[in-house]
Design brief:
Layout: E1 2-13, E2 16-28, H1 32-37, H2 40-53, H3 61-67, E3 73-74, H4 77-92, E4 122-124, E5 129-131, H5 140-155, E6 159-164, E7 167-171, E8 180-184, E9 195-199, E10 202-208, E11 221-228, H6 231-244, H7 249-255, E12 259-264, E13 269-271, E14 279-282
Helix pairs in contact: 2-4, 2-5, 5-6
C-alpha cells in the first residue's frame, strides 16, 4: 500500500524549539523506517548550532567569547561561520543589522541610516580565531538561519519543512503534492495566524519587537516577515525592516526587492506586492 506520510522530529536551536517535518509525497510504508532515520543528520545540525551559538548555554562558544569579548578565541566551525555571516549583515546593511548586545536595536541612529557605532571584528580563517571587538554579541537570528540552511542540505533533495521558532524553510512539496502552507504568527499570541502562505523552496523568516523592550510607539512595526531563497539573508533583512519604522518599511522592502509582510502597532497586517501572490488566506 502506498500513502503520503510525514515524520515530525523536534530539537532546539539557540534555545528555540525546532522541528523537522520530512515527507515523501508517495512512499512505501516499508521504507518509512529508513526515511525517518534520514532525519538524524538534520537534528545533529540543530544540536551543533545550539552548542555553538546559544546564549542560554554558558559552555557554548558564543557564551565563552562574550565572557571575554576583548580577547582572541578559537571557536567551532559553526560559530565562526555565524560570526562571518553577522559581519556580512552588518556591512551589507551599513550597520542597521547590528548583533552587539549593548546597542539598542529598537532605537535608530539619530542621524538616520548608517553606522550606529563602528564594529570591526577580526577573524582568522586558518585557525578559526575571532576577536569580536570588546562588546558582547548575540547571533540568534543568524544561527537559526544557518541551522535551517545546513539542516536542509543534510536532508538532501527530500521534501521537507524545517521550523525554528517563527522561522522556517520549506523544500519541495508537502504530502498532498502542493506547496507547504505556513502561517504568519500574531504577535499578540492569538493561535490563529494573521495569514497563511503557500511556499516551496523558500525561507520564511520573522523578526519581532519584544514586548519587554523599549515599547512600541504608535506606528511602530511590531513584526516583519521576509521570504527569500536563503534563510540567513532573510533573517538579516527582516531585522532591518523591523527597525525601519511603519512609514519607511514599504519603501525599504521595495528598494531591496523583498517579499515582505509586517504588523504595525494597531495589529494590522500589511503585505507588499512581492509577498501577496503567496497568500492563501488572510484574517
Amino acid at each position: 500500500m502506498r500513502t503520503a506520510t510525514v515524520d515530525l522530529r523536534e530539537g532546539f536551536v539557540v534555545g528555540t524549539a525546532a522541528a523537522i517535518a520530512s515527507c515523501a509525497r508517495v512512499v512505501v510504508r516499508t521504507d518509512l523506517e529508513e526515511r525517518v532515520a534520514g532525519c538524524d543528520p538534520a537534528l545533529a545540525v540543530f544540536r551543533d548550532v545550539d552548542a555553538a551559538c546559544s546564549l542560554l548555554d554558558p559552555d557554548s562558544d558564543l557564551s565563552r567569547v562574550n565572557a571575554a569579548p576583548d580577547e582572541w578565541h578559537v571557536v567551532s566551525p559553526a560559530c565562526f561561520t555565524a560570526l562571518r555571516e553577522a559581519w556580512w549583515g552588518f556591512r551589507r546593511t551599513s550597520g542597521r543589522f547590528d548583533p552587539r548586545l549593548r546597542v539598542d536595536p529598537a532605537t535608530p541612529p539619530p542621524s538616520g541610516w548608517g553606522l550606529r557605532l563602528p564594529w570591526r571584528p577580526r577573524m582568522v580563517d586558518a585557525t578559526r580565531s575571532v576577536h569580536i571587538g570588546g562588546i558582547p554579541i548575540e547571533l540568534d537570528g543568524i544561527a537559526r538561519g544557518l541551522a535551517l540552511r545546513w539542516a536542509s542540505n543534510a536532508l538532501g533533495g527530500a521534501h521537507h519543512l524545517l521550523e525554528v521558532g517563527d522561522d522556517c524553510w520549506c523544500a519541495g512539496r508537502c504530502p498532498d503534492g502542493g506547496p507547504w502552507r505556513v502561517g504568519i504568527a500574531d504577535p499578540d499570541g492569538d493561535p490563529t495566524p494573521l495569514a497563511v502562505l503557500a511556499i516551496s523552496d523558500t525561507a520564511c523568516i520573522t523578526s519581532t519587537r519584544s514586548p519587554a523592550g523599549t515599547g512600541a510607539a504608535p506606528g511602530d512595526v511590531r513584526a516583519a516577515t521576509v521570504l527569500g531563497p536563503d534563510p540567513v539573508a532573510a533573517a538579516v533583512w527582516s531585522r532591518v525592516l523591523l527597525l525601519s519604522g511603519a512609514e519607511a518599511i514599504a519603501q525599504e522592502a521595495g528598494r531591496r526587492r523583498l517579499a515582505a509582510a509586517w504588523v504595525t502597532a494597531d495589529g494590522a497586517l500589511h503585505v507588499n506586492s512581492g509577498l501577496e501572490p503567496r497568500i492563501l488566506w488572510q484574517r
